[in-house]
Amino acid sequence: MHTRWIVPAALALAVAILAAGCLGQPLTGRENGTGVRASGVVVGNQPQNQQTQTQQTQSQVEQQQRQLEEQRRQIEQLQSQQNAQ
Length: 85
Prior knowledge:
Elements: H1 3-22, H2 29-34, H3 37-84
């Protein structure tokens, strides 16, 4: 007799949770891209994480380029000092 109300109660709870997930703010671009809010966080973060990684890599490349330019200037200075002697 106890099991007769457990299944309907579980179904009602599941429906309530799903309905609550559909209420609230409109979907963000990240959430809208996946079509499902629950997997939207996981799948939707991938492009954002990739963009962040790309920006970090670009910053590292730019820093290394600045270091190379500085080292080239130093080498040119040393060569010109050596030729002047």
